[in-house]
Amino acid sequence: MPASTYAPQHFLNLRPLPHAAACSGRTTSTTAPSPKAPGAAQGGGNCWVVVVLVVQLDCLGGRQVGLPILFRLFRPKDDAHPDRPSQPELGRTLIGMVIERFPGRAVELVMDGAYATKAWRALPERVTVTTRMRANAADFALAPPAIGKRGRPALKGARLGSLAELAATAGFEPVTICGPDGRSRVEHAW
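Given the sequence above, the corresponding structure tokens read:
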């Protein structure tokens, strides 16, 4: 039986109501061994975009376990299929299904920076997105409301400082975090 590799690339978390389960998503890549010489490029693998329901189990001491509930196979664009969706677009489709199914839930999406695309625009008010930003990212304030003048309205507000400048002025507080192994460590929260 061929061995496969498992490489998680991103996570999407949905914050539930109290005492309810949460959802998250994960993209994994499974690649079969290549019949080519050792060290040759691998090929013929699958890449899945998966939404996982995260359940906290009391029998495991409150530890969280992920149960896959939705998934789609990612197929890259090519000349014959230029309209295939990207991984973030597939993730947005799956999360859209979850949002539609659970209209009363507050949703918090947490994902890798590779998924920080325009696919996540126009989400409902109850959905927040947290992602890693590039170190040289340009941050802007929200666009001001239209003022009734002719012409195109502003798409973004005033430029904010660099990420280093924003971090220097932010107030961080030490927080003690206890891991599943019982060990605790101190992290800094904003």
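The longest strand covers residues 46-57. Try to locate this feature in the token string yourself.
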